From TrEMBL:
<dbReference type="InterPro" id="IPR000873">
    <property type="entry name" value="AMP-dep_synth/lig_dom"/>
</dbReference>
<dbReference type="Pfam" id="PF00501">
    <property type="entry name" value="AMP-binding"/>
</dbReference>
<dbReference type="InterPro" id="IPR002123">
    <property type="entry name" value="Plipid/glycerol_acylTrfase"/>
</dbReference>
<protein>
    <recommendedName>
        <fullName>Carrier domain-containing protein</fullName>
    </recommendedName>
</protein>
<feature type="transmembrane region" description="Helical">
    <location>
        <begin position="767"/>
        <end position="785"/>
    </location>
</feature>
<dbReference type="GO" id="GO:0071766">
    <property type="term" value="P:Actinobacterium-type cell wall biogenesis"/>
</dbReference>
<comment type="similarity">
    <text>Belongs to the ATP-dependent AMP-binding enzyme family.</text>
</comment>
<dbReference type="InterPro" id="IPR036736">
    <property type="entry name" value="ACP-like_sf"/>
</dbReference>
<feature type="transmembrane region" description="Helical">
    <location>
        <begin position="668"/>
        <end position="686"/>
    </location>
</feature>
<dbReference type="InterPro" id="IPR020845">
    <property type="entry name" value="AMP-binding_CS"/>
</dbReference>
<dbReference type="InterPro" id="IPR025110">
    <property type="entry name" value="AMP-bd_C"/>
</dbReference>
<feature type="transmembrane region" description="Helical">
    <location>
        <begin position="698"/>
        <end position="725"/>
    </location>
</feature>
<dbReference type="InterPro" id="IPR040097">
    <property type="entry name" value="FAAL/FAAC"/>
</dbReference>
<dbReference type="InterPro" id="IPR042099">
    <property type="entry name" value="ANL_N_sf"/>
</dbReference>
<dbReference type="InterPro" id="IPR009081">
    <property type="entry name" value="PP-bd_ACP"/>
</dbReference>
<dbReference type="GO" id="GO:0005886">
    <property type="term" value="C:plasma membrane"/>
</dbReference>
<feature type="transmembrane region" description="Helical">
    <location>
        <begin position="731"/>
        <end position="746"/>
    </location>
</feature>
Length: 928
C-alpha cells in the first residue's frame, strides 16, 4: 500500500540527512525542508546528485528519468516527479490552501536556526514583548518580536547595500542598548557573521583597548564595524589598524537604506557568530559557532533546567559575553521567555537594582559570575533591600569564573530573609569553546561542596575528603555534563584518570566550536580527535565535575600546586583590599628551582602607614593558609589589575604587566594616550598609503609587461600546431611570471611528471593560480575550467588552442556529461588539473571539495596527485584590484593510486587529499 505524502516527505528528508552525514556534512534533520536547494543550501554538487538520486530510486523503488534531472532544484521537485511517475501516491498531496498551513508549520524546521525562530515569533506573535530594556533610572523600553524582526531586516538591507557578502564578518561595538539586537540579527539575515566586541568604557585604558581590539578585528578580517555615534572618533582610529575594514556605521544609518532585500536561507550548519575568548590579548582566539552549535547548547541546557516560555530571565550581563549573549538573550529568544535587561554599568554602580528587577518582574532565572554575588554582599545595604522578595527566583546560575563555596554560603545567609531558597543557588561550568554551557547540577538540591585535605591536594593532586576544621579546601561541584555532551578528566598523556584525581578536563558534544577562526595552530593545540582540551583542571566524584583552576594559572612552589583563587579569596578578607580585585601568580625563580608567589591587590588607601599594614596583614593571612608567606605583595591603585569584559581576572595579563614593571607606573593621562594613538594612526595611514602606492606601481608595471608581451604571446600560440601549443604555453607562463617578478619555488618536483595519466588536484586561492600551475605542471596537462570563462571570445580561443576543457558548474545534465568528457581525456593518456574547491573567495581557508576528481580517480583507478598553492592569495586576493609581490610556493605530494572503487572510497580519498592540501597550504579547512 502506498504511503501518504507526509510519510514520503519524511522518508526523503531522512534519506538526504543520512547522505549528508556520510559525505561529512553534519546537519540536524530539522534544518532540511522540501524547499532546501540541493546545491546552494545543502552543498550537493553534480556528482553528489547522481549518488543521492540512486539512493532515492532504491528507497522508493522507482526510476527518475534523466530528462527531469536538470529540472530538480529542491527536494520538493523530487517528490513531484516521483508522484508524476506514479512511484509514490499523489492523491494525498495537499491542496494549495492546506499546503500553506503545512509550510507554516514546517517553518518550525527553521527553528534550528536563530533567524528561523525570530521569524516564527515575529509572524505568529508580532506584538508579543521580547525584551524589557531598563535604563539607569529603571524606565523600561519594550522591544516586541515584530519590531525586532522589522529593524533587523532594515539593518540587513543596509549591510547588503554597502556590499556585505555571505560569509563575511561584521563587528558589533555597542553597549547594552536597543541597537545591539537588530545589529546582531541583521548581520545574520544579510548572510554575514557577527563579531561582538566590548565598547570602550575605561577612558584611562583607551590605548590598550584599541591595540587589543585591533588584533581581534584583524584576525576576524571584519568588513564593517557597527558602533554608536559617541565612539566614531575612536572607530576611525581603529579603522587605520585594520586592513580589511571598509566602513564604520551606526544602526540608524544602516536602517535608512531602502535597497531590495530577500531573506537569506540560513542553515543550521551556517556560521552564527564568532566569540573571542577572554585570553585573546596576544594571540586572538575567535570561537566560530554555527546556528546548530548554539541551538544544541540551548536545547541541552533546557533539558536540565526546564526553561519554559513562562519563565522570566533577568540579566545585566554584557551582550558581548557568551553568558549574557547566548545564555541570557539568545536563550530567551529561542524558548520565547521574556528577557528583562539592564546595563552592566547599572549593576556595577547599584547591584541592588539587579535584585529589585527580579522582584518587580518576578524573575525566575538569572545568571552572573561569582564576583557579582560578592559585589552584592559588599555594596548592598540592609535599607536597600527592605521589602525585597526573591521567592520567585528559581535558579541563580553562578559561572564564567571559579565558584567560591564561601560566596554561596554568605549570599544565602544574607538573602534568605528575602525569600531566597538555598537550592536556587546553582553553580555551573561552561566555556566559549562549548558555546557556553557544559555541566549543570540536578534541580532541587542545594550546592554540593567537597571538603578536602589541602596538603594532599597541593602535593599529590588528589582530592581526599577531610573532616578537619583546618588545613582544608572547599571545592564546589558544577554538576554533570548536559545531555548529549561528554566530559573526561585526563593526565598529560591523555589517559583518563580515576575519581578524585586532578587532571585536565576534555569535552565533546554538538555544542563544540568549529574552530578558532583563522587560527589553525591554536585549534590544533586543543584538538584531540573528537575531544577538545578546556585548559581547565578539575576532578570527578560520582560523575560530577569539580573545577579547580585554569591549568596555566597554577603556581608550583616548593612541591605544592597552589591554586590562585584560594589565595585571592584569602587576600580579599584583609581589610582595605578591594573585593574581586586581587591577583595571585607565579614567577619563575631559576636560582631556587621553583616559582615565586606574587600577590597583587588593589586598595583605595593612600597613606603609607595604612598600605604597610595591609601588606603585613596579607602576608600573615597567606602564611596561615599556606604554611609559608608570599614572596611579594604589591599594592596598586583601583582599576590596575586587567580584567575581561565580564569582570574575570586576567592573571596572565597581570603577570605580564608585572614583569614589564607596568603595575607600579603612574597611569598615563587620557590626552597623552589619544595623542599617541593619533600619531600612530597617522603613521599607519601614511605607511598604508605608501604600501598602496607601491602596489599600484607594481600593478601598473605588470600591466605594462603583459601589454608588451601579449602580442608575441598570441602570435606564437597561433602559429604553432595544437600539439606544440601546450609546451609553448608552459614556456610563456614561466616567462610571464619571471618578467612580472612573481617568483616561485616548487617542492616535490619529482611528482610532476608525465609518465602516466594523472589527476592533479589543487586548492584555488587567486586568479593567478592557473598561470602558476601551467608553468610547473607537465606540458599538455589539461585544465578543467569553468564554462563562464568561455563567454569572452579571445579567452575561449586561447583555452581551446591550449587544449583546456570547460565544464558547466550549474547545469546538472551538462555536468554529468562533462564528467564523461574528462573520463575520455584520461583514457587517451592526458593528465588533468582540477580545482577541487570550484572557486575562491576573499576569506582564507580551504573550502569544501567537489567530488568529481575523486570519483574519477577511484572509478578508473587513475593516480591522483595533490598540489598545494601557498602565496597566490597574497599576490592577488579576491575583491582586490592591486597586485602585491609575494613568494609563491607549490607543494606537489606523492600521487595516490586508489585500490578500491565506490562512493565511500572516493569520499575517503577526498578527505585525505583535503587534509594534505590544508596542512601544506597553511590555510584552515572551512566548513562552508
Amino acid at each position: 500500500m502506498k504511503q501518504g505524502y507526509q510519510d514520503q516527505q519524511s522518508r526523503l528528508i531522512r534519506l538526504t540527512e543520512e547522505y549528508l552525514k556520510e559525505i561529512g556534512v553534519h546537519r540536524p534533520i530539522l534544518e532540511i525542508t522540501l524547499q532546501s536547494k540541493l546545491e546552494r543550501d545543502l552543498g550537493i554538487d553534480s556528482l553528489g546528485r547522481v549518488e543521492l538520486f540512486h539512493r532515492i530510486e532504491e528507497e522508493f523503488k522507482g526510476h527518475l528519468p534523466e530528462k527531469f534531472l536538470g529540472e530538480i532544484e529542491c527536494l520538493e521537485d523530487i517528490l513531484r516527479i516521483l508522484a508524476e511517475q506514479k512511484i509514490i501516491a499523489s492523491q494525498n498531496r495537499p491542496s494549495n490552501k492546506i499546503k500553506k498551513i503545512i509550510n507554516r508549520k514546517e517553518h518550525h524546521f527553521d527553528s534550528d536556526t536563530l533567524i528561523g525562530n525570530l521569524r516564527k515569533y515575529a509572524l505568529d506573535h508580532p506584538d508579543r514583548p521580547h525584551i524589557y530594556l531598563l535604563n539607569e533610572h529603571g524606565e523600561e523600553l519594550v522591544i516586541t518580536y515584530g519590531a525586532l524582526y522589522e529593524d533587523s531586516q532594515k539593518v540587513a538591507r543596509g549591510l547588503i547595500s554597502k556590499g556585505l557578502k555571505r560569509g563575511q564578518t561584521v563587528a558589533i561595538m555597542l553597549p547594552t542598548s536597543e541597537d545591539f539586537f537588530p545589529a546582531f540579527l541583521g548581520i545574520q539575515l544579510a548572510g554575514g557573521i557577527p563579531v561582538p566586541i566590548y565598547p570602550p568604557f575605561r577612558a584611562s585604558k583607551i590605548e590598550e583597548y584599541i591595540k587589543r581590539e585591533a588584533k581581534i578585528l584583524s584576525n576576524a578580517e571584519v568588513q564593517f564595524l557597527i558602533t554608536f555615534e559617541q565612539t566614531k572618533g575612536i572607530s576611525k582610529i581603529l579603522q587605520s589598524f585594520i586592513p580589511s575594514l571598509k566602513g564604520v556605521f551606526t544602526v540608524d544609518s544602516l536602517k535608512k537604506k531602502t535597497s531590495p532585500y530577500s531573506n537569506n536561507h540560513v542553515l543550521s550548519s551556517d556560521p552564527a557568530m564568532i566569540q573571542y575568548t577572554s585570553g585573546s590579548t596576544g594571540d586572538p582566539k575567535g570561537v566560530l559557532l554555527t546556528h546548530g552549535n548554539i541551538i544544541a547548547n540551548l536545547k541541552s541546557a533546557q533539558e536540565v533546567i526546564s526553561l519554559k516560555p513562562s519563565d522570566v530571565i533577568v540579566s545585566w550581563l554584557p551582550l558581548y559575553h557568551d553568558m549574557g549573549l547566548i545564555g541570557s538573550w539568545l536563550g530567551s529568544l529561542y524558548f520565547g521567555a521574556p528577557l528583562v535587561l539592564m546595563s552592566p554599568l547599572t549593576f556595577l554602580n547599584r547591584p541592588d537594582r539587579w535584585l529589585w528587577a527580579i522582584h518587580v518582574y518576578r524573575g525566575t532565572l538569572s545568571a552572573a559570575p561569582n564576583f557579582a554575588y560578592e559585589l552584592c554582599l559588599k555594596k548592598i545595604k540592609d535599607e536597600d533591600i527592605a521589602g525585597l522578595d526573591l521567592s520567585c527566583w528559581r535558579l541563580a546560575l553562578n559561572g564564567a569564573e571559579s565558584v567560591q563555596a564561601s560566596t554561596l554560603d554568605r549570599f544565602y545567609k544574607r538573602f534568605k530573609s528575602c525569600g531566597l531558597k538555598q537550592e536556587t543557588l546553582y553553580p555551573v561550568y561552561g566555556l566559549a569553546e562549548s558555546t557556553v554551557a557544559l555541566t549543570f547540577p540536578p534541580l532541587g538540591h542545594k550546592p554540593k561542596i567537597d571538603i578536602i585535605d589541602r596538603e594532599i591536594f597541593e602535593k599529590q593532586g588528589k582530592a581526599m575528603p577531610s573532616k578537619k576544621n583546618s588545613g582544608v579546601t572547599r571545592i564546589v561541584s558544577c554538576g554533570k555534563p548536559i545531555p548529549h555532551h561528554s566530559v573526561k578528566i585526563v593526565d598529560e598523556k591523555g589517559r583518563e584518570l580515576p575519581e578524585r584525581k586532578v587532571g585536565t578536563l576534555w569535552f565533546k558534544g554538538p555544542s563544540s566550536m568549529q574552530e578558532y577562526y583563522h587560527n589553525p595552530v591554536a585549534t590544533k593545540n586543543i584538538s584531540h580527535n573528537s575531544w577538545l582540551d578546556s585548559g581547565d583542571l578539575a576532578y570527578k566524584v560520582d560523575d560530577e565535575i569539580y573545577p579547580v583552576a585554569r591549568k596555566k594559572d597554577v603556581i608550583i612552589k616548593a612541591g605544592h600546586n597552589l591554586y590562585p583563587q584560594d589565595i585571592e579569596a584569602a587576600t580579599e578578607l584583609v581589610s582595605g583590599v578591594r573585593k574581586g580585585c586581587s591577583c595571585a601568580f607565579g614567577v619563575s625563580n631559576p636560582e631556587q628551582g621553583t616559582e615565586r608567589l606574587v600577590i597583587v591587590a588593589e586598595t583605595n588607601s593612600k597613606e603609607k602607614f595604612e598600605r604597610d599594614r595591609i601588606v603585613q596583614n596579607i602576608t600573615a593571612r597567606i602564611s596561615d593558609v599556606l604554611g609559608f608567606p608570599p614572596d611579594e605583595v604589591l599594592l596598586t591603585n583601583p582599576g590596575t589589575i586587567p580584567k575581561t569584559s565580564s569582570g574575570k581576572l586576567q592573571r596572565s595579563a597581570c603577570k605580564a604587566a608585572y614583569l614589564r614593571n607596568e603595575l607600579k607606573r603612574a597611569r598615563i593621562p587620557l590626552w597623552i594616550q589619544i595623542v599617541k594613538l593619533s600619531v600612530f594612526s597617522f603613521l599607519l595611514k601614511l605607511g598604508k598609503g605608501a604600501k598602496e602606492s607601491m602596489k599600484a606601481i607594481y600593478t601598473l608595471y605588470v600591466f605594462c609587461v603583459l601589454l608588451i608581451i601579449v602580442g608575441p604571446f598570441i602570435i606564437s600560440i597561433a602559429c604553432v600546431s595544437n600539439n606544440l601549443a601546450p609546451k609553448l604555453g608552459k614556456l610563456w607562463s614561466k616567462i610571464i611570471l619571471l618578467l612580472c617578478g612573481m617568483f616561485y619555488r616548487v617542492r616535490g618536483h619529482q611528482y610532476l611528471t608525465k609518465c602516466h595519466p594523472t589527476i592533479f588536484v589543487a586548492n584555488h586561492a587567486s586568479y593567478i593560480d592557473a598561470i602558476v600551475l601551467t608553468a610547473v605542471l607537465p606540458a599538455g596537462t589539461i585544465m578543467i575550467a569553468k564554462e563562464e570563462l568561455l563567454h569572452f571570445a579571445p579567452l575561449k580561443w586561447l583555452l581551446t588552442k591550449l587544449g583546456h576543457v570547460s565544464i558547466h558548474r550549474q547545469e546538472f545534465k551538462q555536468s554529468v556529461r562533462d564528467y564523461h568528457k574528462i573520463e575520455d581525456i584520461l583514457k587517451f593518456g592526458h593528465s588533468v588539473l582540477i580545482f577541487a574547491e570550484g572557486t575562491f573567495t576573499f576569506a582564507q581557508g580551504i573550502r569544501p571539495f567537489k567530488m568529481g576528481a575523486f570519483q574519477l580517480s577511484v572509478d578508473k583507478k587513475v593516480a591522483l596527485c595533490p598540489v598545494s598553492l601557498k602565496g597566490t592569495r597574497q599576490v592577488l586576493r579576491d575583491e582586490s584590484y592591486f597586485l602585491t609581490p609575494h613568494m609563491i610556493e607549490i607543494y606537489a605530494h606523492p600521487p595516490i593510486i586508489p585500490t578500491t572503487k565506490g562512493w565511500r572510497a572516493a569520499l575517503k580519498l577526498k578527505n585525505i587529499v583535503r587534509q594534505i592540501i590544508g596542512e601544506s597550504s597553511g590555510e584552515p579547512l572551512l566548513r562552508h
